[in-house]
Amino acid sequence: MSGTPLQPVILGADIGVYALARSFHEAYGVTSVVVAGAALGPVAHSRIVRHEIVADGHDPRQLVDRLVEVAKANPDSRLLLMANSDWLVRVVVQHRALLEQYYVVPFLSEHLLDRISDKATFAEICTDLGLSVPRTIVQEFGSEPWGAAPVDLEYPLIAKAASSADYQDVEFEGKKKVFEIATPEELTWLWGALRGAGFRGRFVVQELVPGDDTQMRSITAYVDTHGEITLLCSAHVLLEEHTPSGLGNPAAMITTRDDAMLEQARTFLASTGYRGFANFDVKVDPRTGAFRFFEVNPRIGRNNYYVTAAGANPMRFVVEDAVEGRSVPPVVVDKEILYSVVPNRLLLRYVRDPELAARVRRLIQAKAVARPLQYRGDLSPRRRLYVWMALVNQVRKFRRYYPEVTSTGF
């Protein structure tokens, strides 16, 4: 970096933001600036972040204005901007012309963001490329007169916003990230609730691919500024979160190299002209063994620390490429580690497959377990207490929202 100090600036305040700050600190010994509406638990009382709090963390204008202020206060640093949720990536990309005057902005173009962030369009792209996706029906809410699209799928089925950014600020009783719809009447209720809440985007209705959480897979990729895919890492999901707002976020995974699946992700990234980080959600269809691609997040995932823990710190890839202008030899991660945000005993309660459970126990015994919040370099007494409480709190959440394993993960 030719003597110019690196200064990471991250939008957001969740566990994924803390994981990014931790990865930056492990790689470069730097403190990250975190811009958000509040210093939430995962980043609170941390020695590796500096907080820039805005009055309204949901107001793009306030966030962008504060980013400019932070930049002007650090004129002698090389500023790298990161974000860890879809709507914040959209804020950055929409204000790229202004922000690139101060920051390195390692995100894809707005045109491609619009295409791949929409689950309906994503499904079309995958189908054209020969990648398998669940059968998808699109329900439009932005046009009048409104009518319900005919649904010729077998119940139960899945319903979710085509674009999570469009759904971010919509509020109604019973709101969830993903809905399992058991009957036509439940679907009618959901459409009414969305219209009543003023939702104007698109929802997708998809076939339910059977299988519990252990059928899920996660892929993290980095495509450099020249279009070279320099980082690929896949993981076998063991357990997902089941709170209404967190449904589908992995709570525990084992990093597992799966070249056949990674090759399909590679096809998608190369064919679309992708740039920056990408995080794919994939499910193995137990009926056929096929990889069913659900979506790609236009950013590094909330659970990004599994990649760092497996020996390939993603922040090195983006810094060496986008900040230092150096080409990085491509890496496909094959080290096996257990990534988890839940207590070991709780995890083993939900992993019913004997072979998988044996792998989990072996990694626990080998101390090859990575917990993103438990960082030796950042354990003040108050933080230590929060990390312990967050672990204990997972027991309460699973008891309430997912007391027993189900055949569908719902």
Explain how this protein is built.
The mean pLDDT is 96. The chain has 14 helices and 17 strands. By secondary structure, it is of the alpha/beta class. Strands 10, 11, 12, 13, 14, 15, 16 and 17 form an 8-stranded mixed beta sheet that branches. The chain folds into 3 domains: 6-105, Rossmann fold (3-Layer(aba) Sandwich), CATH 3.40.50; 135-207, Dna Ligase, domain 1 (2-Layer Sandwich), CATH 3.30.1490; 213-401, ATP-grasp fold, B domain (D-amino Acid Aminotransferase, Chain A, domain 1, 2-Layer Sandwich). 44% of the residues are buried.
Percent of residues in helices comes to: 25-40%
- In the CATH hierarchy, what is the superfamily of the largest domain? ATP-grasp fold, B domain
- CATH fold-type name of the largest domain: D-amino Acid Aminotransferase, Chain A, domain 1
Structural class estimated from helices and strands? alpha/beta
Rg (C-alpha, Å): 21 Å
Main sheet characteristics: 8 strands, mixed
What is the total domain count?
Answer: 3
Question: If classified by CATH, what would the architecture of the largest domain be?
Answer: 2-Layer Sandwich
Strand content: 15-25%
Question: How many strands in all?
Answer: 17
Q: How far is the first residue's CA from the last residue's CA?
A: 48 Å
Shape: globular
The total of helices stands at 14
Mean residue pLDDT: 96
